[in-house]
Design brief:
The complex is a heterodimer of chains A (122) and B (111).
Chain A lengths: L2 E4 L3 E3 L5 E8 L8 E6 L5 E8 L4 E4 L7 E6 L4 E6 L8 E11 L2 E8 L3 E5 L2
Parallel strand pairs in A: 2-11
Antiparallel strand pairs in A: 1-3, 3-8, 4-5, 4-9, 5-6, 7-8, 9-10, 9-11
Chain B lengths: L8 E4 L5 E6 L11 E6 L6 E4 L13 E6 L2 E6 L8 E7 L8 E2 L3 E5 L1
Parallel strand pairs in B: 1-9
Antiparallel strand pairs in B: 2-6, 3-4, 3-7, 5-6, 7-8, 7-9
The chains are: A mainly beta (122), B mainly beta (111).
């Protein structure tokens, strides 16, 4: 059974950094892209980025590029999202996901983590 | 990229059918067969309902069906059940994007 288990909720102050983890199981981690999707309050879903554990190839949402870093630790089949210089508007739910890839195309998402609620407030 | 356009809400009575639309452009929904739909019960992980425009993963009831006409994709929920009350999101590949785009979501209420 594929599982994506994320770290717990977090509260940060503006300007701080955030790091969320995603422990995976049930599939061969090195050969599957892993991604992150966020949902800000009252808004829809938005891609943060995706990473290929095999070679750490990454793609970021241009709106976040420069503040976000995706990484993996193949030894523990885990992925990480780090978001720097947090703003109140970064508050929301962050989901770890396993995208379905057709070549280089993101064709959808077949598995989702349970979500990590992030609150950024002074 | 702009989000795909979904109606904010939809509703139906138990046993009825409801259709949710997802409108994009020829650069996304209308141009490629990588349209997917997700069901999200608040507090739970979203769930894949449909991929490649109209394919259902194993385990998804055939009450959920989807199609596309031009730049608009549609999700139909037939034989509505109370458990279908949830938020529904569409998603599509976008030419020139390395990630894709989501719709704004539709809250389905079972009356």
């Amino acid at each position: 059974e594929v599982q994506l288990v994320q770290s717990g909720a977090d509260v940060k102050k503006p300007g701080e950094s955030l790091k969320i983890s995603c422990q995976t199981s049930g599939f061969h981690f090195p050969i599957h892209w892993i991604g992150w999707v966020r949902q800000m309050p009252g808004r829809g879903l938005e891609w943060v980025g995706i990473i290929y554990p095999g070679d750490s190839d990454v793609r970021y949402n241009p709106s976040l590029q420069g503040r976000v870093t995706l990484s993996v630790d193949k030894s523990v089949s885990s992925a990480y999202l780090q978001l720097n210089v947090l703003e109140a508007s970064d508050s929301g739910m962050f989901y770890c996901v396993r995208p379905m890839m057709v070549g280089a195309v993101v064709a959808g998402i077949d598995f989702w983590g349970q979500g990590t609620l992030v609150t950024v407030s002074s | 990229q702009s989000a795909l356009t979904q109606p904010p809400s939809a509703s139906g009575s138990p046993g009825q059918s409801v259709t949710i639309s997802c409108t994009g452009t020829s650069s996304d929904v209308g141009g490629y067969s990588y349209v997917s739909w997700y069901q999200h019960h608040p507090g739970k992980a979203p769930k894949l309902l449909i991929y490649d425009v109209s394919k259902r993963p194993s385990g998804v009831p055939d009450r959920f069906s989807a199609s596309r006409s031009g730049n608009t994709a549609s999700l139909t929920v037939s034989g509505l059940q109370a458990e279908d009350e949830a938020d529904y999101y569409c998603s599509s590949y976008v030419i020139g994007s390395n990630l894709g785009v989501f719709g704004g979501g539709t809250k389905l209420t079972v009356l």
